[in-house]
Amino acid sequence: MMKSLIPFLFVLLLWACQSNQPGSIEISIDPVLQEELSDGRLLLIFSKNMETEPRFGINDNVETNQVFGMDFENYEAGSTLVFDPSSFGYPIDSLVNLPEGTYNVQAFIQKHETFVRSDGHTVKLPMDQGEGRQWARAPKNIYSLPQKIEWKKDQGISLTIDKIIPPVEEPADTEYIKHIKIKSEKLSAFWGRDMYLGAHVLLPEGFEENPNQYYPLMIYHGHFPSDFGGFRTSPPDPNLPTDDYSARFGIYGYAKIQQQEAYDFYQKWISPDFKRFIIIEIQHANPYYDDSYAVNSANLGPYGDAITYELIPHIEKEFRGIGEGWARFLYGGSTGGWEALAVQVFYPDEYNGCFAACPDPIDFRAFTSVNIYEDKNAYFKEGEFRKTLRPGHRNYLGHIDAMVRDMNHRELAIGGDKSRSGDQFDIWQAVYSPSGEDGYPKPIWDKYSGEIDSEVAAYWKENFDLSYIMERDWETLGKKLEGKIHIYCGDMDNYYLNNAVYLTEEFLEGTGNPYYDGEVAYGDRAEHCWNGDPTQPNYISRLRYNTMYLDEIEDRFAKSAPSNFNMKNWTITK
């Protein structure tokens, strides 16, 4: 009797599983937008907010919108894209588990282009279009207008993509700020197409009136700048609203504060006793992220060499930079903090000091909250009888609002499994990893499960673990870095970046022959991105990068500049 029921029960189970599958989701594309479409990633985004576009509401916190993503290749004009119901999603991982209800729904396509690289690999990636590799704002990407939909699992939906993001408007030159873009021969050779580097250049007061004067160069590293930031030649706009609220800092009126700080900087810049130098902010967005991390990489190519040996000499020649390593300084925060230290370490003779604030992990024993060398899984800390998720983001009280798994699963849904999300963990992987057999970055860990690849970790250690590399090579590197390293971090950094700084400080303070003779400092209960000023809150000091390290740079000039360097406007008064 029981034996005869088995086939019947199997049919019932199969019917139940099939009936639980969502109805067909079809995406049609306006014929005008089909011509340049071949490969890409299709995102399906759900939101409960009916007032804003769903594409702008995907994040790590609990207010995030829901996104599902699928790759497609070789799109044929006139065809309809059918969304794969098994596609991975964030924060809910499956369409099957999406609750029925009313949603604001949007379809979005991030286009991929084909690159035939000099290393023999052919890859398909979303090229930066001048926006800083931000998929939701990237020109040429296409999308549907949000549509209010009653989502029922057994009913299909249809969306029409008929909008395209327009080109970015380039900023215009001003009296003080100039914009340049050059073709990089090194990067073009690697990527198999013309590749460019750009920069926003702030010229010193009196530049035109003093054609025989040459200037030190300050390189401000950071995320993609649309224009030179924090410099304003007029007072704050009196019509600014007073009720604007900064959720990050918990204050009202932050727009006016920013404008006032920018105007104050301008007033210092033109004052007769202010130091005279050139500041540049580099544009080096690429197919993986809004910048390259300014180093040579198996997956991104020779960005370190291109910036140091092509872009910077071009700027110095064009704008009368001194053009020697003793007259170049590096600073920045977060990504820019890592870059400042990395560039100083990898090109020690080409730069005369770095000021690295809240740097991305500089010791991979504390890769945020993961030790990639000893931990087996990036997402879980496991014991014999239980396991707990690793934290990814906290506030200054230590309250956690995102886990490492959450942050990686968001990237997995947006970009897939080939590091194409344009976000944080994917760019670390793209910069630090070797290329896999398919030409894409070899994963440091499985993006879904979190299982760490120890061979990839060993590659990261030898090539990009800055603390380890300094310790490994100190015998030859130490004399070149003496007096050049300055690191600052809040001891409650939101992303746990202070833990890597502690480990690096332990090594640096133990150095000898020579002693590193720099500085490591921490902000008490300071969040990301504390940059070394204990007298001001983060929301003020973060606006003063271009002036806050000048005393230390003066000291450095006094110790290292050649005797014929004109110290006018650089006299030490302490």
Question: Roughly what fraction of the amino acids lie in strands?
Answer: 15-25%
Number of domains: 3
List how many beta strands DSSP finds. 27
CATH class of the largest domain: Alpha Beta
Radius of gyration: 26 Å
Task: Give the CATH architecture of the largest domain.
Answer: 3-Layer(aba) Sandwich
From the helix content, strand content and strand pairing, which structural class follows?
Answer: alpha+beta
CATH superfamily of the largest domain: Alpha/Beta hydrolase fold, catalytic domain
Mean pLDDT: 93
Distance between the terminal alpha carbons, to the nearest Å?
A: 97 Å
Biggest sheet descriptor: 8 strands, antiparallel
**Which residues form runs of ≥5 with pLDDT under 50?**
1-19
How many helices? The count is 13
Shape: globular
Helix content: 25-40%
- At CATH level 3, the topology of the largest domain is Rossmann fold
